[in-house]
């Protein structure tokens, strides 16, 4: 079954531009999705150069009712608003992330902090939090030198699956080029997966 790809949001988090396995795999996957849906539009967001971390002013602005926010508070939330809008607009999300020290790069964690916003991407109910971004498909493309994807020491792909589910995106597929220092052929296996999982 072909995933809907009317609008594809590609997020790259690798600090490496040249030679990045996750960038290569994410590009290959997006190319495959475009082949299936030629009229798809692409949104690209490279977070590798860093995003601002949450601070007290951001938190105060976020928890101020939208109608009561000052111009300074609106400006403080402007980037977060943009990132949330990109996520809402996307039918398909492709996230390319290396596993750094068992988890995601700090820049990708900063992206998560900026898009996980009550009343915009999730809401609290009497039965607990409910994600608001349902009906989307996400692909998590990871690469590692030694960490086995999905294992008890993988706090990258498992974390991203949880985060996406928290905001309502439960159709999540993982493509892993893991343990490349020990099994370099896993890169080619993952490249084949980009074709299979997109189909």
UniProtKB/TrEMBL annotation:
Record's protein name: FMN dependent NADH:quinone oxidoreductase
Cofactor: FMN
Subunit record text: Homodimer.
Domain Flavodoxin-like fold positions: 6-195
Cofactor note: Binds 1 FMN per subunit.
Originating organism: Roseibium denhamense
Role played: Also exhibits azoreductase activity. Catalyzes the reductive cleavage of the azo bond in aromatic azo compounds to the corresponding amines.
PANTHER family hit by this protein: FMN-DEPENDENT NADH-AZOREDUCTASE 1, FMN-DEPENDENT NADH:QUINONE OXIDOREDUCTASE
HAMAP family: Azoreductase_type1
């Amino acid at each position: 079954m072909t995933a809907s790809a009317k609008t594809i949001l590609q997020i790259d988090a690798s600090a490496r531009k040249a030679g990045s396995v996750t960038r290569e795999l994410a590009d290959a996957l997006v190319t495959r999705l475009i082949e299936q849906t030629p009229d798809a539009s692409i949104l690209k967001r490279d977070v590798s150069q860093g995003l601002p971390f949450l601070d007290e002013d951001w938190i105060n602005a976020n928890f101020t009712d939208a109608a009561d926010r000052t111009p300074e508070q609106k400006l403080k939330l402007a980037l977060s608003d943009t990132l949330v809008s990109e996520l809402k607009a996307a039918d398909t999300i492709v996230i390319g992330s290396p596993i750094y020290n068992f988890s995601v790069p700090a820049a990708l964690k900063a992206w998560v902090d900026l898009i996980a916003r009550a009343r915009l991407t999730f809401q609290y109910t009497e039965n607990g939090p409910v994600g608001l971004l349902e009906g989307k498909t996400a692909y998590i493309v990871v690469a590692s030198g030694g960490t086995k994807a999905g294992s008890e020491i993988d706090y990258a792909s498992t974390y991203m699956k949880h985060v996406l589910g928290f905001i309502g995106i439960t159709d999540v597929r993982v493509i892993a080029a893991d343990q490349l220092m020990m099994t370099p052929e896993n890169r080619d296996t993952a490249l084949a997966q980009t074709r299979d999982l997109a189909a």
